[in-house]
Structure prediction request, 475 residues.
Amino acid sequence: MPKADKFREACGVVAIYAHPEAEKLAYLGLHALQHRGQESAGIVTSDGDALRLHKGMGLVAEIFSEEVLSKLHGNLAIGHTRYSTAGDSALLNAQPIRVQSNKGTIALAHNGNLVNASVIRSHLESQGSIFQTNSDTEVIVHLIARSKEQALLDAMADALRQVEGAFSLVMISPDRIYAARDPRGFRPLALGRIPGGGGPNGDTIVFASETCAFDLIGATFERDVKPGELMVAGPSGITSRFFAPPQPQSSCIFEHVYFSRPDSLVFGRAVEESRAELGRELAREAPAEADMVVPVPDSGVSAAMGYAAESGIPFRFGLIRNHYVGRTFIEPLQSVRDFGVKLKLNPVRSLLEGKRVVLIDDSIVRGTTSRKIVRMVRGAGAREVHMRISCPPTISPCFYGVDTPSMRELIAANKSIEEIREFIGADSLAYLSVEGLKKACGDGQKTTYCSACYTGCYPTDWVDVEEIQPARGRR
Ligand code: AMP
Prediction:
């Protein structure tokens, strides 16, 4: 099996074609997509002539002041927000990537991970190519520049045929916006329109990872960019072509479980509908005798409401989240137990004292968060804590753009459910089944999903063999 790359990053992208304040719409779009990446962000704009770029580390609102945005003023824009774990988090890797090539000046923003990027990169480096970042996305830029196709659109299609894995891309040239999705449709990318915004036929064309970005900028959702589709928004309107034959669709089910916002339509389906159904299904599969259903906010809220509705057990906000936790904080020298989680969550003692609680979260990854939260709920006087997880055990890492640790660190890859229950200190623990998950997310209806993180069955041949090494003495 070939060795794949794993860049551990998650991202959001947005693109605006033809609006007098494209830079502001891109900024607002990124603001709505902030949950998809909080480490760095960037915007590239065009006024029909040159491409202007600004990117920085931190949150969208910290990076783009009014002054910065006024310098970016343009009619076309793309934007990117990125999250990555240690190692490759430098500004160098922030996107969009802008280059001047034999095909003109272009910039590109990518959501997803390519699984064959390092193989292509080694090959290109052996032929003299010089890379400036260690991000997989730069490979696409090189392939476009080196393509024998003369026209930019043909060169893009040529490049996209050579990369494997997950990519939802937006690109900009001085007078056009391009949007493309990999042939399996791993990550979302939606097309929308602002009537009378100022583009061809009077409308502004927009692309975004999630439709919550459209809501903020007054765009209406039109449809998803299709798997294998390359779209262009230009002076004569929108054109579309397929750069590769279709593959079996493998859209990421984790977008519905956790990653996307519940107010978004993702893969043509309301995320909130999936989440509530995940909770209802969980209540049917794993009932509990309890006095209240308490979500781990925010990620467990929709599923907990579904669980409460199905089970008839009252829903209570027994944990309160502080939404203003900054990126840096001062920790007391005398370390407070579970300080990190306490910064973010606080139990409501008056509700929990003496009660049997069903605690709902969307997932257990390493198990450390759940362990602290169970301890916190017990510390606030709960008599029993029954943990219910609205997805199956996470047993395998993702190679397609969701940040998951290697198999060695995934608790469910290394411990039985009973051992996990003991580790987190709950009275009982149950997960949703794979069948329940797929049913709740409407698998096989509009969308067929990738659920490799729950099954270990990867839709591409390329996986990272290092990442899927089991822990010693297990499995
Ligand atoms: P852990 O302590 O590793 O078990 O973390 C579990 C918590 O992380 C849950 O509350 C999830 O909501 C959250 N979570 C799950 N997957 C991810 C992810 N890919 N990135 C960030 N947070 C996540």
Remarks:
- Residues 271-285 form the longest helix (15 residues).
- DSSP finds 17 helices and 23 strands in the chain.
